Amino acid sequence: MTHLPPAIADLIRPDTVLKSTPPPALATWLAQANRAATQARERGLPDSPQAARDGLASMTRRFCGTGPAMAWERDITAGPENTPVRLYDPVPDLPKPVCVYLHGGGHMAGSVAVYDPICRRLAAAGNCLVAAVDYRLAPEYPYPDGLTDCLGVLVHLQEALDAAGCLTNGHLSLAGDSGGGALAATLASLLRRHQSLRLDRLLLVYPSLDYTLPAYPSLQENGTGYLLETSKIRWYFDHYFQQGEDRRQASPLYMGMDGLPPTLVITAGLCPLRDEGLAYLQQLRQHGIPCQHLHLPDMIHACLNLHELVPEACERIYQTMTDFMHA
Questions:
Q1: What is the pTM of this model?
Q2: CATH numeric code, 19-43+72-326
C-alpha cells in the first residue's frame, strides 16, 4: 500500500488496494496521450483555456458517444443570472427525485453540451430528473461567478421545474465531478444556513476539495502520466482565483462538516485528487455524517469521460450513485 498519513490510511481497510495498474485499453490510450502531450511541449505549444476546453470536449465526444435517449428533455434558465440548465427526464409522467449535476473541467472547461452523454446515463440509470447547470467559467468569469450561478439555480430550481411542468417528489440530490465536485461540496456547506432549501444527498465523483494543494501523496505519485497532472491543477486554480482570495477559506475541506447531508465520495486510485477525497471522508465520519465510499484503484481522473475505454467502471459509478440517491 502507498504510504499515507495515518489519518488518511485509517480510512482504507488493510485488504484494500489503494492503486493498481489501469486496464489494458486505458493503459494503451494513456500511453498515446502522454506521447502527444510530450510532443506538444517539445513544440512549445502553450496551455490555454481554449485548448483545455477543446481537449475535454474532444475526449468526451470520442469516448462517451451520445448516451441514451430521453423521453423528455428541455433547456431552461434559472436563478438571478438566468443560468442555462438542461433537464433530462426518462419518465416524465411519474414524480421522481431531482439530481442537480455540476460538470467537471477545473472551473475552466466543460459544459452541459460536453457532459450531455454523462447526464443522460445518470438520468437513465438513476430514474431521476437530472438538471445540468451551465455555469460560467474562468478565466473570463473567475471565482466566485460560477459558484454564484450554481447557488442561484439551486435556490430557484423548484419554481423553474414547476414552470416547465416537471413532476418531482421533493427529494433533491446535488452531484458533481472534479471541479464540479468542488462546487457541489461548497454549495452543500453554504446551504446549511438556508432556511427553505434542504439537500437530501451529496454525491462527489473524484472531487477537488482543497484549493491549497498541500503535500498529499497522491499529488506526487499520480501527478504525471494519468491525464490530470498536478501542474495543470495549479494552473486551473491560478486562473480561477484572480484577486488573491484565501484559497483555504474557499476550500470545502475546511468549511466544517456539521449539518451536511448524507454524502457519497467516489475516489480513483490513479487520480491526483484521491487523498483529499479520503481526507474529506475522514472528516465526515468524525462528525457523524452518514457517508459512503466507492474506491476504484485502477481508475484515473475523468474516467466517466472515457466510457468506451472503461465501461464496467463507469457503470459501477452510475449504479452506486443510483443506489445512494434512492437509499
A1: 0.96
A2: 3.40.50.1820
Label each residue of the chain as H, E or C: CCCCCHHHHCCCCCCCCCCCCCCHHHHHHHHHHHHHHHHHHHCCCCCCHHHHHHHHHHHHHHHHCCCCCCCEEEEEEECCCCEEEEEEECCCCCCEEEEEEECCCCCCCCCCCCCHHHHHHHHHHHCCEEEEECCCCCCCCCCCHHHHHHHHHHHHHHHHHHHCCCCEEEEEEEEEECHHHHHHHHHHHHHHHCCCCCCCEEEEECCCCCCCCCCCHHHHHCCCCCCCCHHHHHHHHHHHCCCCCCHHHHCHHHCCCCCCCCEEEEEECCCCCHHHHHHHHHHHHHCCCCEEEEEECCCCCCHHHHCCCCHHHHHHHHHHHHHHHHC
pLDDT in tens, 2-61: 444 555 556 545 456 689 999 999 999 999 999 999 999 899 888 999 999 999 999 999
Domain boundaries, the chain: 19-43+72-326
Work out the percent of the chain whose per-residue pLDDT is above 90. 90
